[in-house]
């Protein structure tokens, strides 16, 4: 894992700041503190542990809330979702079957035996038993969750929330689009490859004769073959948008669906759209698809499955709400294993969570997240209803002032339709070592109200997971108070966990927020999450395909912070704390979105029937396809070498690449470099825009056999040779020798761009 570790050590009084560590936005000002051990972990069956935690407060979890809602009469997706502040559909939603059972993940202390599985089957349907991690996917009535959790050998039962994809659009809705003809002047296929020009991939294919042949690319997303309109999978093959039997462009190797790939909820075939983008840039590559599955663990299993199927480049566009923020979780562990054991180069979408303020001190600055180095406890306001033992987070970094809420001013005109926002949060504790239970609450602070009115209360997941996810509806033009209530914690812990509070969707609704960070203990705006930012995959930011110097305003920003070692894929044990916090520069690279597909995305208002795929979900596969061109040219490269060359040859601002809108100089004037709202390039678009020509030109030339080599007019002392140009920048050894004695008398190296040479 390539992570930038803070290179400046600042000594901080741990009694005053807990587990805090200094942060600056500039790589030159990165700081770290000494290691702080995890003192207490939760009691787990069969797992060695410290003393039992001394719990203060009343723990709550998402599973408990869902069970309570069902017992209180809530039935079906709409009623249950409303009761626990979850969306009814899309990312972050529950999955229900026709019997009103929800999908959930059961984690075991060890591999479950037949007796335990039979117990579970008496209350639920077992969809799959996973390996090597001891877990299973089930469908269960909400009121039965607690009964399964009480079984000996079961650690937790966590409701499965649908993943978020890195798209800025959605499946197109329209009539069936007939197979299209190849546009005039374009490569074979029904759509223009808009990414070719900004990524210089068409130029590379022509100059070096590469098309991805010999490379297998794995794609992970929601689904591949669910939709039939505007086009179906078969339509895409027939038109040349995808390879397969009957493809008019001669690309007859069909896309392979990974055997045993656990299919999650029916999606919008975003995976098929990603495959079209990959195929457009690297049409010779073999494509293998796997769904994201029903959980992080299923996706981790599918990552390893793609690597076992021969994929040397893999790309996904998925973020699971349950991913850890301060640790490489299950998906990241699978990526690291695929990289180390099978040489995979892994790309992922950086996410579309950035939001930019528009008023006051927030104007022009990223505002979609808030985080600090350690939980600061304070009394909750009188208008926040809490149980005994609960306290609230102090948002004010000034030790002399306590403020138990942050105020968010919402864009728009008062009285308009409410805006949907989807919070995503985490605390700085490891998977299976979570000792804190908390809620994120939102209150309408309309001055016409006697006191702020509760909008929503979102509980933490509970069990092994340190995060939470939900949805809120906020009033346009209004003010919303955000409150973090710590409902339970271990009183014996010496240090307080770091806190991350962000919005995976809807952060752009924030016009202004009260607390904008101080650059040392608190900061605002970093929205890469999970494996998109923790260094396991190459997080890919989005640029406008028509103006690739321009960053999309939704493209997520980094960096990420790691406090714990990578989670285990084998056992439910908490990972050790790192010797010091590791800051990961992310996203690592940028690519383009807004490119055409045959069916997916937003219909272009200027070109009816043309669908454009926006978001980092489109940028990531375009970048992965460029890497495949490089690997096709130099198949001897390791995954790490390919990754390094993709980053080393990306074009930054000085080379005509993207321009940083959040640097020292912005549309809002020249900012102080120490301002926590200043983001260096490596936390906005990484190394720059991927460049196919630069990548291949950087790779070592290697000898190759000329095509159609023929030797004529051979005599004792000479011969003539002729061949067909390969069109590649490979070098050919040509020799003149004494054929009677076999003695080499001269040699020269020439570029294999001539069709014949005599000597």
Describe it for me?
- With about 750 residues, this protein is α+β, with helices and mostly antiparallel strands.
- It is about 15% helix and about 25% strand.
- It has 14 helices and 42 strands.
- Strands 3, 16, 17, 18, 20, 21, 24 and 26 form an eight-stranded antiparallel sheet that branches.
- Helix 2 packs across helix 3 (about 75-85), helix 9 (about 270-280) runs parallel beside helix 12 (about 615-635) and helix 10 packs parallel to helix 11.
- The protein is globular.
- The two termini are about 50 Å apart.
- The model is unreliable at about 1-50, about 170-180 and about 725-759 (pLDDT under 50).
Main features:
eight-stranded mixed beta sheet, eight-stranded antiparallel beta sheet, disordered N terminus, disordered C terminus, 27% strand, alpha+beta, globular, 759 residues
Write the layout of secondary structure elements.
Elements: E1 8-9, H1 14-17, E2 31-32, E3 55-57, H2 62-71, H3 76-84, E4 102-108, H4 114-121, E5 124-130, E6 135-140, H5 145-149, E7 154-159, E8 164-165, H6 196-199, H7 201-208, E9 216-221, H8 233-239, E10 256-257, H9 270-281, E11 286-291, H10 296-308, E12 313-316, E13 318-319, H11 330-342, E14 345-349, E15 369-372, E16 377-378, E17 391-393, E18 406-410, E19 419-427, E20 437-444, E21 453-459, E22 467-469, E23 472-474, E24 479-490, E25 499-505, E26 510-513, E27 522-524, E28 538-544, E29 547-551, E30 560-564, E31 577-584, E32 589-593, E33 595-597, E34 602-603, E35 611-613, H12 616-633, H13 639-648, E36 665-666, E37 669-670, H14 692-698, E38 707-712, E39 720-724, E40 731-738, E41 743-751, E42 756-758
Parallel strand pairs: 1-2, 9-11, 9-12, 10-11, 12-14, 14-28, 28-32
Antiparallel strand pairs: 3-24, 4-6, 4-7, 5-6, 8-13, 15-25, 15-27, 16-17, 17-24, 18-24, 18-26, 19-22, 19-23, 19-25, 20-21, 20-24, 28-29, 30-31, 33-35, 34-35, 36-37, 38-39, 39-42, 40-41
Helix pairs in contact: 2-3, 9-12, 10-11
């Amino acid at each position: 894992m390539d992570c930038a570790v803070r290179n400046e050590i600042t000594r901080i009084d741990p009694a005053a700041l807990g587990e805090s560590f200094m942060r600056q936005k500039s790589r030159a000002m990165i700081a770290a503190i000494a290691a702080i051990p995890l003192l207490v972990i939760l009691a787990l069956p069969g797992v060695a542990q410290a003393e039992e935690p001394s719990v203060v407060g009343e723990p709550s979890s998402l599973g408990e809330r869902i069970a309570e809602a069902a017992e209180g009469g809530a039935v079906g997706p709409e009623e249950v979702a409303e009761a626990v502040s979850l969306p009814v559909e899309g990312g972050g939603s529950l999955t229900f079957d026709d019997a009103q059972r929800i999908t959930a993940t059961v984690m075991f202390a060890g591999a479950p035996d037949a007796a335990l599985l039979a117990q579970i089957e008496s209350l639920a349907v077992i969809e799959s038993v996973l390996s090597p991690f001891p877990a299973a996917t089930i469908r269960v009535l909400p009121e039965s969750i607690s009964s399964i959790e009480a079984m000996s050998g079961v650690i937790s039962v966590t409701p499965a929330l649908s993943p978020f994809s890195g798209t800025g659009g959605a499946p197109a809705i329209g009539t069936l689009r007939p197979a299209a003809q190849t546009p005039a002047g374009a490569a074979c296929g029904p759509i223009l490859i808009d990414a070719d020009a900004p990524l210089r991939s068409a130029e590379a294919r022509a100059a070096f004769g590469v098309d991805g042949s010999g490379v297998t690319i794995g794609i992970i997303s929601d689904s591949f073959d669910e939709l039939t309109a505007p086009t179906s999978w078969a339509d895409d093959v027939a038109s040349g948008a995808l390879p397969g039997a009957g493809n008019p462009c001669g690309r007859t190797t069909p896309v392979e669906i990974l055997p045993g790939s656990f299919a999650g909820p029916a999606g919008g075939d975003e995976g098929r759209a990603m495959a079209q983008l990959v195929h457009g840039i690297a049409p010779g590559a073999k494509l293998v698809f796997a769904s994201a599955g029903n959980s992080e663990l299923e996706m981790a299993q599918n990552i390893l499955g793609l690597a076992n199927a021969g994929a040397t480049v893999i790309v996904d566009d998925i973020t699971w709400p349950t991913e850890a923020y301060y640790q490489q979780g299950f998906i990241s562990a699978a990526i690291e294993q695929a990289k180390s054991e099978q040489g995979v180069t892994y790309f992922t979408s950086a996410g579309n969570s950035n939001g930019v303020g528009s008023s006051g001190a927030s104007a022009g600055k990223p505002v979609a997240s808030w985080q600090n180095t350690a939980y600061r406890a304070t009394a909750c306001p009188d208008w926040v209803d809490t149980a005994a033992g609960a306290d609230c987070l102090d948002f004010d970094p000034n030790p002399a002032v306590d403020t138990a809420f942050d105020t968010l001013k919402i864009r728009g005109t008062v009285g308009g339709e409410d805006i949907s926002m989807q919070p995503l949060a985490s605390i700085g504790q490891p998977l299976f070592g979570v000792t804190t239970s908390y809620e994120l609450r939102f209150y309408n602070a309309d001055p016409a109200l006697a006191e702020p009115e509760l909008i929503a209360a979102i509980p933490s997941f509970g069990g092994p997971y340190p995060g939470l996810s939900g949805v809120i509806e906020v009033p346009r033009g209004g003010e919303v108070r955000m409150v973090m209530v710590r409902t339970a914690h271990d009183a014996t812990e010496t240090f307080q966990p770091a806190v991350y509070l962000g919005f995976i969707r809807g952060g752009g609704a924030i016009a202004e927020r009260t607390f904008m960070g101080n650059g040392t203990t608190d900061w605002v705006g970093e929205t890469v999450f999970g494996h998109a930012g923790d260094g396991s995959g190459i997080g890919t930011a989005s640029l406008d395909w028509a103006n690739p110097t321009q960053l999309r305003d939704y493209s997520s920003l980094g960096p990420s912070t790691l406090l714990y070692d990578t989670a285990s894929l084998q056992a439910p044990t908490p990972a050790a704390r790192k010797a010091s916090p590791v800051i990961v520069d992310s996203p690592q690279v940028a690519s383009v979105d807004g490119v055409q597909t045959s069916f997916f995305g937003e219909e272009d208002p200027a070109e009816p029937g043309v669908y454009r795929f926006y978001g980092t979900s489109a940028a990531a596969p375009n970048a992965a396809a460029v890497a495949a061109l490089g690997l096709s040219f130099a198949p001897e490269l390791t995954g790490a070498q390919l990754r390094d060359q993709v980053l080393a040859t990306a074009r930054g601002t000085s080379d005509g690449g993207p321009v940083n809108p959040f640097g020292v100089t912005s549309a809002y004037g020249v900012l102080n470099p120490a301002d926590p709202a200043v983001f260096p390039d490596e936390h906005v678009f990484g190394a720059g825009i991927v460049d196919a020509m630069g990548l291949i030109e950087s790779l070592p030339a290697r000898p190759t056999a000329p095509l159609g080599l023929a030797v004529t007019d051979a005599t004792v002392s000479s011969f003539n040779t002729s061949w067909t140009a390969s069109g590649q920048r490979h070098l050919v050894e040509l020799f003149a020798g004494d054929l009677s004695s076999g003695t080499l008398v001269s040699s020269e190296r020439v570029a294999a761009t001539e069709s014949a040479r005599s000597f």
